[in-house]
Amino acid sequence: MFCSKKKSLEVERTVKANDREYNEKFQYADNRIHTSKYNVLTFLPINLFEQFQRVANAYFLFLLILQLIPEISSLTWFTTIVPLVLVITMTAVKDATDDYFRHKSDNQVNNRLSEVLINSKLQNEKWMNVKVGDIVKLENNQFVAADLLLLSSSEPHSLCYIETAELDGETNLKVRHALSVTSELGADINRLAKFDGIVVCEAPNNKLDKFMGVLSWKDSKHSLNNENIILRGCILRNTSWCFGMVIFAGPDTKLIQNSGKTKFKRTSIDRLLNTLVLWIFGFLVCLGIILAIGNSIWENQVGDQFRTFLFWKEGEKNSVFSGFLTFWSYIIILNTVVPISLYVSMEVIRLGHSYFINWDRRMYYSGKSIPAEARTTTLNEELGQIEYIFSDKTGTLTQNIMTFKKCSINGKIYGEVHDDMGQKTHMTKKNEPVDFSVNPQADRTFQFFDHRLMESIKLGDSKAYEFLRLLALCHTVMSEENSAGQLIYQVQSPDEGALVTAARNFGFIFKSRTPETITVEELGTLMTYQLLAFLDFNNIRKRMSVIVRNPEGQIKLYCKGADTILFEKLHPSNEDLLNLTTDHLSEFAGEGLRTLAIAYRDLDDKYFKEWHKMLEDANALMDERDERIAGLYEEIERDLMLLGATAVEDKLQEGVIETITNLSLADIKIWVLTGDKQETAINIGYACNMLTDDMKDVFIISGNTAVEVREELRKAKENLFGQNRSSSNGHVVFEKQQLELDSVVEETITGDYALVINGHSLAHALESDVKNDLIELACMCKTVVCCRVTPLQKAQVVELVKNYRHAVTLAIGDGANDVSMIKSAHIGVGISGQEGLQAVLASDYSFAQFRYLQRLLLVHGRWSYFRMCKFLRYFFYKNFAFTLVHFWFGFFCGFSAQTVYDQWFIALFNIVYTSLPVLAMGIFDQDVSDQSSMDYPQLYEPGQLNLLFNKHKFFICMAHGIYTSLVLFFIPYGAFYNVAGEDGQLIADYQSFAVTMATSLVIVIALDTSYWTVINHVFIWGSVATYFSVLFTMHSNGIFGIFPNQFPFVGNARHSLTQKCIWLVILLTTVASVMPVVVFRFLKVDLFPTLSDQIRQRQKSQKKARPLRSQRPQTRRSSSRRSGYAFAHQEGYGELITSGRNMRAKNPPPASGLEKTLYNSTSWIENLCKKTTDTVSSFSQDKTVKL
């Protein structure tokens, strides 16, 4: 408690290296993490407190206390305490098991080992023992233990490469660098041990992209920023070793600050039951008051006449006090309207549904042997009510594997499959990929199915050569050879890796680079290009260029970038090719591929020298430096000659498009929350069919200030709602009125809209005065994409929708950066992906592939909701019917709180006689098959609208139960009135009356089943048989002889149930109870059938016909032009390359960098020519555009 206060007041942090004693006085948190909720001491009090937050548990505890008072209790106390203890124990064991696994996960992380510098020696230390100020050594592919200040590394200029997948979902490598003053420390343990720098920095916070601090050392101060910090959760890549100083540890690290708290989740049905239990208790109080008043009146007017016989003294029993005691007695008797077995049954049903999910073979991923897992058993029916899905992109929708799929070179598409007649066909398993075996350095995992590109290369197509040469030269990839002598590429973005690998396989192999040269092996010949300038990529330019001098001495500019930008820079002579390439790009984008346009320019030597001089002058400026450089880049990147375009596939996970289409048909809105770039996220939106060209508008919010964001939202709302609607901006509207207004507006909006918003704009939009505008606009859009968002922002968006729309939400992700939104949503789903198990450990449900989500929701979720609702309706009905008979009997027994049934029947009714039929209904009942649930996603709608169990349905169940109780009581009562049995004896005794009513009730309850299976038959007829077995046993002479006081109904069953008139009464009562319901259901299905009724009828009439499957929209779009540009590149790599700070020291290049060097006496292209047949005749018939 003290520590949390201390931390909340922390304004800035002061950390001294290698001085634990100094740092301990600030009481900084250690590196131990806790995601568990309980420990040994706190488990019992906290868990009991949580359980008694359920109104029903508190209600049963209150009843138990009442039953312990002998003056008012006509039922024994064990009928309540045994089931209450059972329910609380079962729930506690389940909670303890869940928390045990959290403890196990925490211990696994806390006990990881890191090398820590202690007493001038490197020692293996557990993560939980690492302290603020410690010097930690990391090695390649190791996880970072805490937030570190990078001191030195094995790389030149103390650079290091990190993968931040657990923080932002990106697998792109990012660069961090140490200060030059600390990089001198190197790996010298003695110097590192003597390092005593003091860091003063910001307090712990959740901002992943910002850090501010100052390092004081050797009488000088050095400013620190985010580029010097390595965060916990990152993985060190392509760096042999590095040393860092711990700044934030454990709960103070930015990863944990973004994780969010573990929340106690309850379903909407649980919350509704809390309300209903209060209503039922109020109803019981009303019944108790009526019966208590009746008792007081009866005692006053009739009871006096019995006092003589009962030897009571005059005035000994007050009629008002008698009524008071009777009130509490009836509260106890009538409490079976909500028996505790309701909650036991609900837990059993949920457990059964969870096992169905675990056992579902169609959700089992054989590729990695991962089954689906329900990690909680309390939320199953909520899966049938989801309205909003919040999904991560990388690793959830996509595999984050980039594949070079197609390209357009000089107006001709390569990458399509053609038949023998030259006609385009679809890809099949029979298609043979291009054989790259003649290229000894080809990447064996690369596959390309269009053989014509290889033929063009073989025929010496100059445009194809220039195209592939550009891919091999214009990039930021670094190369190295592994121990086996194989060429390995270190890529900063997977897009570049795909392009360079494609060029490599087609014979243009990027070999190595220095700050001044790039070496490429072109079709077996080693070529060294002089790198004259590197025009780096950024989000405004959306392109990158290199200027090189080739071995012939020609200067060329090679450029790749977004087609929308690059096409504006082309020479006018490219018009014909531009039109063709534009059509090709539209086709690529329509297939969901990420595209880049490719162009080059020949430069004059003199012109380049003048331009380069101006660039050097601009670099030397202090003011307006960036603007001058950008202007010079614009100047030289013009009059470009178009070569073509590339199309790279960001491979979607299997079945993503079908899943999203089906979920959309179920009226589930899908929002993508990703840490990736805007262009990449939009492109994946199109690839998944969440964004389509048919949409009326896609609103892009990218303002950098609160004013800009507010203005952009206002304009978007004007487009969407019209001028009148947006005039209410800034005014406070009552929540209920707002929701009603939104529902009206939602109906009037025609067409589909989408919203795209980035992280820094979202930060402003989440402020209180803009929040309503954001959520109002977003909820009217079919698709929302939030890009460049932090883990905490993901959680804030989920909370916003939860609080504003009161909708049931589901969050799905696969990395640590998704944990906070998984915890915030009503349902959290973790995917066992490439980014570790953090998301799975924090989730409620987990599986291996996004496509299983549709089965989880449309089948298991819908069934769970349908079954639970039907169970609750039936349970309340049967208990109202069972309990209210006591109310009617009260008017005929002097309001004496006499029970109408045998006490053992009351104790066993819910536990034995009717538990199995109701459980069979709750676990196995289904309206349509699982395949029909998938084929007709519209069946999911009743759950979203909460149609199957609500307050209205509860009152219908209540009315049904009251009607059945009237029939159960008054038909036997009327039949027994002044009637003699077959033997001439009177049968209208209390015990015979009780047995007749009880038997009728058990039969009526058992018969109400619509889905008959073997299990249902066994449970239903087994329960009826059990009832009669127990009845005859308890009414036998033998058990009466052993327990005469406990079983007073001796011989009654045998006497009553052997008479025909009793069975006729039972039959009449059963028919009168069941027939109105059967008639009503028949007419309802016939006159007002629901969709599930229609599907059932269709299946019965057309058993052999195929079901009509929902067709997903075509992924090919050619109606309108849009850019498929998406590039996961980051700014800054060009400067690193040209400065040489990321280059290792290597042997110097040849004396003349402009020489051609023969790589082999016989090039592999010659081998290819010998190996393949000549196809000149067929190739020459193809039309190409000549410039």
UniProtKB/TrEMBL annotation:
Reactions the enzyme catalyzes: ATP + H2O + phospholipidSide 1 = ADP + phosphate + phospholipidSide 2
Sequence ranges assigned to domain P-type ATPase N-terminal in this UniProt record: 15-81
Ranges for region Disordered: 1098-1126
Feature: compositional bias, Basic residues: 1098-1120
Location(s) in or outside the cell: Membrane
Principal location listed in the UniProt entry: membrane
Any Pfam family matching the protein: PhoLip_ATPase_C
Top class in the EC scheme: translocase
Keyword Membrane in annotation: yes
Keywords: ATP-binding, Magnesium, Membrane, Metal-binding, Nucleotide-binding, Translocase, Transmembrane, Transmembrane helix
Membrane topology: Multi-pass membrane protein
Cofactor(s) recorded in Swiss-Prot or TrEMBL: Mg(2+)
Membrane-spanning ranges: 272-298, 318-344, 875-897, 903-924, 954-975, 987-1007, 1019-1042, 1062-1083
Enzyme Commission identifier(s): 7.6.2.1
Domain P-type ATPase C-terminal, first and last residues per copy: 840-1090
Stated family: Belongs to the cation transport ATPase (P-type) (TC 3.A.3) family. Type IV subfamily.
PANTHER family, per database record: PHOSPHOLIPID-TRANSPORTING ATPASE IM-RELATED, PROBABLE PHOSPHOLIPID-TRANSPORTING ATPASE
Name of the protein in its database record: Phospholipid-transporting ATPase
Gene (name only): ATP8B4
